[in-house]
Amino acid sequence: MRGATDASPERAAVSSSVNRALEDRCKRRLESWSPTVHWGLLARGRLDGIVRYRPDREDQLLGELFASESGLHTATGEGSDDGRWFVGAGNEAVLDALREIARANV
Fold it and tell me: Is the pTM of this model over 0.85?
């Protein structure tokens, strides 16, 4: 979620659904207020993948630059609630798994 002013029960439900799906398939799931740090970790190969739901424009642009320059595999899409999602990973297998989660839950 981006912030209290942007929150709605529907968006909170989507976010929870994505989180549950990730927890079912991943060893660890990180969540914080600093996505730029996560982008850097992903670009350096310290994280296997990233899922972003309704990302802030500025953070997302920086993240996509990191992804592009580091050769990451990426995908984007639109959810049923007009919520944009983005996934990135260091390999195709992880990207496919994250894309499946995003498509099924957003």
Answer: no
